Request: fold
Amino acid sequence: MISLPLDIWTSDDEPRLGVVLDEIWTLLEEGVTDRRHGFHTPVAATMRASSGAELRTVVLRDVDREARCLRFHTDIRSKKVCDLKEDPRLSLLFYDRGAQTQIRISAAAIINHNDGTAAQAWKKLSPDCRREYLASEQPGEPSAWPTSGLSPDLQDRDLTLAETEKGYRDFAVVSASFDHLEWLYACHEGHRRAKFEWLANGELETTWLVP
Reply:
């Protein structure tokens, strides 16, 4: 929620859109560090020629205000990576019930694999987080029974950092750079909606929208 000493339901007291944008960035940054925050797990949508939009939940790992870039981790063998290699358009949907705020972002994705961005992110991961990249089969492969994809010797015990290093080969970071963002503040007194658009020259255009 916009934490300002104003009544945002009175037209004369509407918060400036610059203040709204700053609050959006704050919520996104909180989503990186707070696992309970609604923005921690946005829905990501890719496009697939055979079936149209494909949706899945991802974990927000990094926010860069200056570059207007959001990042999440994935397995390089995943279908979302295949989708993004074919069509780099990526949509992200965030919602936090406590803040009564929804954010929709249209971005262009870059797959970081075996590069500096991926290496830096990998170093920050705990062995538990690295474990999911140790599956022998690629994500989405059919299985005759419920499985984690991990071999028996990697399950039900704590792994050392050294044991997880081989997972780096399948680890990737998706960098989502965006120039279009829509904000919706929803509550029973009356919703508020706005659009933020960055032009090719870096200039920001803002406007209120009818909810």
About this structure: Helices lie at 17-33, 79-86, 116-124, 127-130, 161-164. Residues 34-114+173-209 form a domain with the Pnp Oxidase; Chain A fold (CATH 2.30.110.10). DSSP finds five helices and nine strands in the chain.
